[in-house]
Amino acid sequence: MPAALLGAACTLLLAGCAATPPAANAPDANVHRTDSHATPPRDARAARSAEAPRLTGQAAHRDGDDLLTAGLGLTGLQQATPPPFADPEAPTAAELRRRAVWSSWRGIADLRPEGGYGVVYGSAATVPGREFHALATVPGAKHPHRLMVQVPDGFDAGRRCVVVTASSGSRGIYGAIAVAGAWGLPKGCAVAYTDKGAGSDYFDLDAGQGIAVDGRVAAPDDPAAAFDPGAGVPTTGIAFKHAHSQDNPEADWGRHVRQAAEFALATLETAMPQGAPYTFDNTRIIAVGISNGGGAVLRAAEDGDWLDAVVAGEPSIHIDAPGARALYDYTTEAALLMPCALADLDALPTSPLSTVATAMRAPRCAALRAEGVIEGDDTAAQARSAHARLRDAGWTEAALRAAALSVDFDLFRAVAATYASAYGRYPAGAHPCGMSFSAQHPDFSPRPATAAECAAWWSDASGIPPGAGVGVIDPALAAPDLTGPGLQCLRALWTGDSADAQRVRAGVAAVASAPPRAGLPVLVVHGRDDGLIPFAFTSAPYVVASRAAGRDVRLWEVRNAQHFDGFLALPDYAARYVPLLPYVYAALDRVDAYLDGGALPSDAVIETRPGGHLDAAALAVPGT
Predict the structure, then answer these.
(1) Is residue 425 a contact partner of residue 241, using CB atoms and an 8 Å limit?
(2) Which of 220, 177, 178, 169 is nearest to 199 (CA)?
(3) Which of 103, 168, 200, 291 is catalytic?
(4) Nearest to 284, CA basis, from 518, 67, 32
(5) What is the pLDDT of residues 299-354, one digit of tens each?
(6) What angle (nearest 5°) sits at the alpha carbon of residue 197, between those of residues 195 and 199?
(7) pLDDT value of position 43
């Protein structure tokens, strides 16, 4: 459906809803934006990436509510406990949205008062406006993904812009609000989001019910459920979109990002018709994302003739180049070897879970020695051997130290279990290592989820268990090395030659990236200490390969920055690391200024000063 028809359809669906008058002096729709680095004109109405999204709702957010913080403000976001539900078993859509916004901010940003958010960098300003939601599909996909567009009342019609983004990890539709929303909304830009086919639309197989488009639990067999795994699946446990859609959504992440931008243009025609048409030619489009959201915007950049600039923070990206490694490869390696290897590193960061993780080191070392994976006659020697294996595979000492917390949280195993299912396009109940997902008893055995657990999934879950009352059910779980046998199976899907291994590796091959389009300004920002998405396996080879292809990709390497700004709430991490978000915001500022006629930022290795109260001198942001 052409954008004009989509805009008309949106107008009909929204008829009778209050609309904010557009800003005065809307620009002539036929006048291209006046920047010094404009690319050749692009026809926004040609070659749509997929059929038009299905609008599922819109609402105004003003008067104690807003687009950026759901009325919580910085003080509310800083609270350690989530906004409560009046009825934990039946929260309202407004309560779910507020809590989803809180959860998304808390999972991404360092909001400690001493961390300087909202004072030294960033914004949690009150931004009134309207929010539009839709479900969309791409050709060949079995299931839809979510889209959202936020249009601030202060949309700058004289300098029309859209910031398009993708949630990081497997997060829901608000997953990038602290990244793209916090930068774009206070500047008067519309912000377009996609959950990129992942998200927290869990499906309770025991009860036969999913999540409705407004976040509430849908009744059994309700066609309005945002994700339904279909027939022929188990009748117990939990299914979720990233693992069980059978779509390998990562292969389409670039299309999801473009579709979000297209939805934004159509939404602007509905929300501010006096300025129509809104096209890729007369509206500035900047893409930004972090982690695999950063990977998603780099995938969009491959054929990004519709984009004006891209900023990718700590991107999960794999390109065919020396040193590059696929996510599934290094994640399964880390999950298997790191619990043993970390016993050989001194002065590791600590977390509340470290005591438990430390107790598992000796059994893992012994099991790896018995399998012939490492050498050594005692735990110390075995740990040295595992440590050496990781160093030889390209892991830096800085990445290993920062990865300790991901080991403590069992994050590598969680990623491997989900991605094995996604890459192999397996339905629920058909995991190649027999794993499944469910609420759990204290002994890790499955149980039905409670009504309160189900009600909170959409707002609280990260989109990838464990978390929000859902865990990984591993039939191979056994003492003394509890998770070792299951991890050996997951690793064999990369190193082995079984039919399942070939199927998973085919899915990995389908997500390989290419350089961005020629002439597109791209700025990559990555922490040198990243232990989840190591710089040496991702950004470094991506930039080298892109430049070898003649692309002008710039790189900021940030010292003392690891992957999770939210982990700086732990004192040991706060003493060792600085947040990455300030540099992502600064990169957006620089490319925006470049599009206005300034210079494209140079490469930089950014020295930082962790510890204590964060100030501008500690950050050392380029150009300030």
Answers:
(1) no
(2) 169
(3) 291
(4) 32
(5) 999 998 999 999 999 999 999 999 999 999 999 999 999 999 998 987 677 777 77
(6) 55
(7) 44
